[in-house]
Design brief:
With 377 residues, this protein is an alpha/beta fold. Helices cover 45% and strands 15% of the residues. It has a seven-stranded parallel sheet, with helices on both faces.
Amino acid sequence: MLYLGEGSCQYRRRLQEVAMSDVAVNLLWLRPGKVGGSEDYAIELLRAISESPQSPSIEAVASMATMAAHPFLADSFKIEYQNSRFGRAGRIRLENSFFAQSKKYQLVHHLGGTHPQSKGCRSLVSIYDLQYLQYPEYFSLVKRRYLESAIPRTLATADAICVMSEFVANAIEQHFGYPRTRCYVIPPAIKATHPRSAYQPREKEFVLYPAVTWPHKSHQFLFELIEQVDDLDLILTGARGSAHNEVLKAADDSPASNRIFHLGRVSSDQLDSLYRRALCTVFPSQYEGFGLPVLEAMSRNCPVIAGNGGALTETVGSGGRTLPLELDLWVRALEDMREPENRRTWVELGHERASQFSPNRAAKAQITAYSDLLERG
């Protein structure tokens, strides 16, 4: 992994070379509102690159739905529109056929986690996690078999990979023997903000969990937690995942069902408001390749209590609490958070942590990866 000093002559020379090169970004995998944190990561990374004065010439290969959901892309990059009418299988076929036939790119960055067939250009693939290896029971047989084939093939055929965390980089090296010299850690682009007003709790305090209803997100752990904490609501946001029906049934069956609210997917403005009004964000996920929502919360002065699975301990750092999924520990952590002075301390620590993941840092790291691959010719 290589990070170049932004003031060095070598760094400036590399950026000038990238600016004359053609980089394609594959967004055909992206289904707006349905792929969780990988969408937020990819889109905010591209936004950061577009705002960098050293941004290379980029062409985004994307569907009309993606462009409608993220119109800034058309203002920032050249666009190659490609659409599939046949669901996920059709999208995979389209990716393979388009990039196998196209010869106009020097480098293609595949942000969807796998490497489609491609010819005549270098390739870079962003891999978000190896959850299918640690929790295979959370994947359908078809999805698991696909990943068991696609991930090793990606590592064998891509020129290099990008990951969000040291945790994922280490897991890929340990499980597949993948050389770290071909692995770039690209942090997310988090724009730290300042509260519009001081924290003013509602008449009834609430904690927030922004997560798709996937099995590893441990929603039911929070239902048990809320049952043990009086006068505290739980607000859930996020799209439908494979465990959605089970999560809703468990919420309905909970003795605290009148204090559990699932809002579904909300707008960015609505989520921003929830972060700013919540007592804290709770994030009991069993596994994360990074855990982007915890940094989003910290950047909005919403303190965090998270699980310690996957990369969460690395991501949260000293900016929040990370705990094993043991109810008594979480009950005490919530009680601590309800003390105003303690909460203020966690707000300050969290905001400081989030500020370390600036858009500028993310853009520079990704442009360095592009430059390295293009220099190999």
